[in-house]
């Protein structure tokens, strides 16, 4: 079976999703489906490092690679989430080549980076350090998020950084940097997205995108456009969308019988 790193390198479509709820059970449920990866979101959630480690265990037990999205490009945060045993890290709001280099360095041991050595879960609590060191060199994944218009000024530099395995557009923040958060169909947003895709293809780097809605049609459209690293919605949107869809089918007479009139 190909590793996540190998699939990314081969620019195969890899589909993951975002977990924002602090629940190993939710992680286990998501792990029952054929995602290529799942991400624990520590930027826009109340998930703590200790809780994230429990969720890493649950996802990996299902045989799915797990990434952690940290809250900022902070070397200590990146080191800590990698020490949980995560397969990789997603780093937000990267705007320059230097910032991308900083993210990679924080995830890698010397000489590839400057990550400090700890003996935590990733290293088998000290009993598997050498094996982990070799695994990290070959299989550790670093993803950067392109979510600000300023990133487009140094896009080729960011994508050319050795150790950046893939990147992805964060549509809400990218549109927000244009002054119109959530307006993904605005002309400037469409132009920046097209430019990003073109540069990725020029450099033979997998282009990524977070499809917010739990809509397979939108996901398939992005794949057909050439995007290869794809985040497919979030746990809460999958849950809430299905609940809403089912309630639309509930007959009013039955609903009254539930005592909710």
Search tags:
261 residues, eight-stranded parallel beta sheet, alpha/beta, 12 helices, globular, TIM Barrel
What does this structure look like?
The protein is globular, with a radius of gyration of 19 Å. The mean pLDDT is 95. The chain has helices at 4-9, 24-30, 49-61, 75-83, 97-107, 129-139, 155-159, 171-177, 187-202, 216-225, 235-247, 252-257; strands spanning 14-19, 37-41, 66-69, 88-91, 141-146, 166-169, 208-211, 229-234. The chain is built from twelve helices and eight strands. Helix 2 runs parallel beside helix 3 (49-61) and helix 4 packs parallel to helix 5 (97-107). It has a single domain (4-257), classed as TIM Barrel. It has 261 residues and is α/β, with parallel strands linked by helices. The protein is 44% helix and 15% strand. An eight-stranded parallel beta sheet has the order 6-5-4-3-2-1-8-7.
Task: Describe, in short, the structure shown.
This protein has twelve helices and eight strands. It is an alpha/beta fold and 261 residues long.
Biggest pleated-sheet summary: 8 strands, parallel
Report the sheet-strand fraction: 5-15%
Secondary-structure class = alpha/beta
* Strand ordering within the main sheet: 6-5-4-3-2-1-8-7
Q: How many E strands?
A: 8
Distance between the termini: 53 Å
Share of residues in helices:
40-55%
**CATH topology, anyone?**
TIM Barrel
Number of helices: 12
- Order of SSEs, N→C? HEHEHEHEHHEHEHHEHEHH
CATH architecture: Alpha-Beta Barrel
CATH superfamily: Phosphoenolpyruvate-binding domains
CATH class: Alpha Beta
Shape: globular
- Poorly predicted residue ranges: none
- The total tally of domains equals 1
Radius of gyration: 19 Å
Rounded mean pLDDT score: 95
